[in-house]
Amino acid sequence: MGNNKILFTIFICLFLIGCGNGTATEQPNDSTIEVKNISANKLIDQEPSNEVKKILKKHDEILGIKAANTSKNIIVAVKVKHNKRFQLKKIKKDLTKELKKNLKNFHIELTTDKKIYLELDKLEDRIQTKSIKPTKLGKEIDRITKLSKDNA
Predict the structure, then answer these.
(1) Under a CB-based contact definition with an 8 Å cutoff, are residues 76 and 110 in contact?
(2) What is the DSSP letter of 58?
């Protein structure tokens, strides 16, 4: 009977040690979120969009964030984990509320639509490569915002 207790104790210790090692090797959440900060230039200041990304990337349910802004408007598209898709309304509401609290001077449009996410990805690339003028940026953001409302 004494040998069984010793074997059981050793088994429990090995099990606990094995479980403990798995959590130490997990990647931090930031490495899995798709975020591309846009460099700010004199013509098109994208610092508010980068601030949005900084705020949102702390949320576990988000896989990717795309955003662009004018001097008054910010449009944001987020890619949500597949297992959280049933909670999209609540996630969208909570994220929008958090952004409005932190960026009071902007009108914020947040969407989980994949098409808008792709459109913002293209726009971010154009801003990064400076292949869009500030006047065209406002029109492009308005177009994408209208497209997001049409799809809603």
Answers:
(1) yes
(2) T
